[in-house]
Please model this.
Amino acid sequence: MRESPCLVPARLARGGVSLSAYAGLGWRPPSSDETIRLPERLIEAVMNLIWTPAQLAMLAKVVDLNGFSAAARALAVPKAAVSRAVADLEKTLGVRVLERTTRRIALTSAGRLLYPHARRIGEETDAARAAIAKLREPEARPLRVVADPTYGRVLLSPLVPRFLEAFAHVPLEVALDAEQLTEGAWDVAIRTRPPADGSTRQRLLGAPPALLCATPAYLQRRGQPERPDDLRGHDLLTPDAALLPEFRLLLERGTQRAEVPLRPKLAVDDPAVLHAATAAGLGV
Model:
């Protein structure tokens, strides 16, 4: 057996590794720290142990993607590396596993026997790579959203599925709780008015449409207002913002505008309660 030119210090060859298994390959540990020559069969055995799983994974990728170029792109390695890996695998096994033509790649009979095992190794390799990559990714903390219960149900219900689909890696926590709007333990708060302290960054999302409405029973009892000033004689039901100083109802129709000072009969900060009071015929 021709010796390999590879040289290695004996202390490294013996360091923490049992070498008795390689005695049959024509090599035994030396008794001192002299430089030694490793037999070629030993080097081949070690290289086969190291490279064969990677070669099998590359073979599976070549077959799955029907080409060395596609496999190289998928593995992010040079095409030559993939070709060399398959060639070395065939040399190690002593059989051809692929028939290469200009148009396609086909498995030989030996390749068909080998391919299922190669594919399992490739899948395990991909799974291991994905698991390690996941460990490197910073864990996304939940995005905390708080909103007024009524407006939150109306505004957020159609948006939550779209958000989770677009940002599948971001957990979402939604609280429809008016009290939490003042606690500050949130990332995004959807409000109907700005906070009093003004300590947060704010962006106007839009203005919900305002409607003047009343039940037929109320209008029959109190009469239907024809002009904006007629509202002065009606029972007005408003959000609690109407109690703020100088709050006026602004009415627009085309180029016509009218402002009506409000003196509400009922001012409430919950839109659901306001809706119920209107439906009960308590006012406009």
Summary: The chain has three domains: 41-135, 138-206, 216-280. Confidence is low (pLDDT under 50) at residues 1-25. Residues 216-280 form one domain.
